[in-house]
Amino acid sequence: MCTKYYEMYDGNNSIGEISWSGNEIRIVQVNRQYRGKGYGGLLLKHAEEDIKKKYNCVHLLAYPFDHSISQSELLKFYSKNGYKPFSFFMRWRYWIRYNRLVKYF
Ligand SMILES: CC(C)(COP(=O)(O)OP(=O)(O)OC[C@H]1O[C@@H](n2cnc3c(N)ncnc32)[C@H](O)[C@@H]1OP(=O)(O)O)[C@@H](O)C(=O)NCCC(=O)NCCS
User: 31-48: per-residue pLDDT in tens?
Assistant: First the structure.
């Protein structure tokens, strides 16, 4: 299945990006200077509108890429955008919790 990609710009500056494959969102990231302004939510909406055409739900694995956002802040972000916990697993050795979230349309 092809991965789709969407990037949002402010003039020549990249605001952030999202990619998805089928009904799974792979990467969502907003560049630091644009965070907290609702762009993350807009990126999710863009992917969801496309996913909705074929599927009745969207899912993703929530895990912060870097230390700029905590797990709980990330879960708050997804919860505000309608995502609910579906399952989780712990990564062996580091005991990092990976949460799989789902949103039904
Ligand atoms: C997660 C991320 C995409 C959010 O993007 P954003 O544009 O800042 O998100 P929004 O402005 O749409 O956020 C809306 C809500 O999310 C929550 N939130 C987002 N960032 C937060 C932070 N740093 N601290 C606390 N809450 C946060 C808040 O509830 C916020 O609502 P509020 O403004 O009413 O408090 C961005 O922080 C990011 O790029 N993080 C690094 C990459 C990453 O780890 N991606 C996730 C991979 S699964």
Answer: 999 999 999 999 999 999
